[in-house]
Design goal:
Blueprint (H helix, E strand, L loop, with lengths): L20 E7 L2 E2 L3 E3 L11 H5 L2 E3 L2 E5 L5 E4 L1 H14 L7 H14 L12 E10 L12 E10 L10 E5 L16 H5 L2 H9 L4 E3 L16 E5 L5 E4 L8 H13 L4 E4 L11 E6 L3 E10 L2 E4 L9 H14 L10 E4 L1
Parallel strand pairs: 9-10, 9-15, 12-13
Antiparallel strand pairs: 1-2, 1-3, 1-8, 4-7, 5-6, 5-7, 6-17, 7-8, 11-12, 11-14, 14-15, 15-16
Helix pairs in contact: 2-3
The chain binds pyridoxal-5'-phosphate and 2-OXO-4-methylpentanoic acid.
2-OXO-4-methylpentanoic acid (COI) binds next to loops.
Length: 341
């Protein structure tokens, strides 16, 4: 199959319309069969619940071309499970997990020409999402929902790829203690838009959010979890009920322990101890692992010993091993890789 004529190596993280998307509708209390369609637009009431009360949840995962030329996706079962958890919290129907995986396969298979070739550094990003579609004016959940998955080829989330980024400590909160930080709901990202625009205007790449109750503990950024490396090579990641359970982070903890023989710790991380870490990185599907070189705390800088030129050595090993697994250069743990015909 011929690949599309795209400058794969220079792709940023943007939207490019691809040929097919999957759509399923939930009406009268049941999901329909679902199908691939061509139309990338959505027609809905001006009073649709998603437009008035932001009843929407989503996921993000990627398809890769491996060294052997196969097309694969990484741990889609965990995205299916997380979407189901997000839906429950948002009073939305669960999209059955087996159907989710089948829909991912259909979308990747139908858009194979857009799966970037091996070695280009690009991947096919998949965006499953679900939203309340019928008119709702009193505050209540919708009765009817639409589930979709579209695909778009992407390059690195941060310009400069694996170059260390600079982030700032944000004064605004992302998630409340008993709120929705642990699910992937659009509303969490709407909350972060003013903060990210402000950070960019000030010359920073991202925000570090602290826990909103005490503002003493590290939570996450707008779109990735944190990983820290101690001076004696331990991998530490923040534990919190108000951050998204990143699939990349959970995978990296396994990679650190089982592939690299490193000690790993998931625990509360106080902002005060951040200055003592040797390396810092952001991890997520879009971010992969993006090294953080510097954190600006209201003008006071924390500069990690790994510097602003390249990833720290442990972060680099984690990156190489994870991407090696995703691209088929390193044997994956059982069940992590799904080959798409
Ligand atoms: N945290 C937030 C807020 C995110 O949006 C994402 C992206 O999905 C992540 C963390 C990373 O999660 P994952 O590794 O599952 O993509
Ligand atoms: C992802 O990594 O899949 C996300 O959803 C993060 C988003 C900020 C692009």
């Amino acid at each position: 199959m011929d690949k599309k004529n795209i400058d794969w190596s220079n792709l940023g993280f943007g939207y490019i319309k691809t040929d097919k998307r999957y759509v399923a509708n939930y009406t009268n209390g049941a999901w329909d069969e679902g199908a691939l369609i061509d139309d990338d637009t959505i027609n809905m009431s001006e009073c649709a619940c998603v437009l008035q009360y932001a009843q929407t949840v989503f996921e993000g995962l990627k398809a890769y071309t491996t060294e052997k030329g196969e097309t694969v996706v990484f741990r889609p079962d965990l995205n299916a499970e997380r979407l189901a958890n997000s839906a429950r919290r948002m009073e939305m129907p669960v999209f059955p997990e087996e159907k989710f995986i089948d829909a991912v396969e259909q979308v990747v298979s139908a858009n194979k020409a857009y799966v970037p070739p091996y070695g280009t550094g690009a991947t096919l990003y998949l965006r499953p999402f679900m939203f309340g579609i019928n008119p709702v004016i009193g505050v209540k959940p919708a009765d009817d929902f639409q589930f979709r998955i579209f695909a778009t080829p992407v390059g690195p989330y941060f310009k400069g790829g694996a170059k260390p980024i600079t982030i700032k400590v944000c004064d605004l909160d992302r998630a409340a203690p008993h709120g929705t930080g642990y699910i992937k709901a659009g509303l969490n990202y709407a909350m972060s838009l003013h903060a990210i625009v402000t950070a960019h205007k000030e010359g920073f790449d991202e925000n570090m959010y602290l826990d909103s109750a005490t503002r003493t503990k590290v939570e996450e950024t707008g779109g990735a979890n944190f990983l820290f490396i101690t001076k004696d090579n331990k991998v530490v990641t923040p534990k919190s009920d108000s951050i998204l359970p990143s699939i990349t982070r959970r995978s990296l903890m396994v990679v650190a322990k089982d592939y690299l023989g490193l000690e790993v710790e998931e625990r509360e991380v106080y902002f005060d101890e951040v200055k003592d870490f040797a390396e810092c990185g952001l991890c997520g599907t879009a971010a992969v692992i993006s090294p953080v070189g510097k954190i600006n705390d209201h003008g006071k800088e924390i500069c990690f010993p790994s510097g602003m030129e390249k990833m720290g050595p442990v972060t680099q090993k984690l990156y190489d091993t994870l991407t090696g697994i995703q691209m088929g250069r390193i044997e994956a743990p059982k069940g992590w890789i799904k080959v798409i015909d």
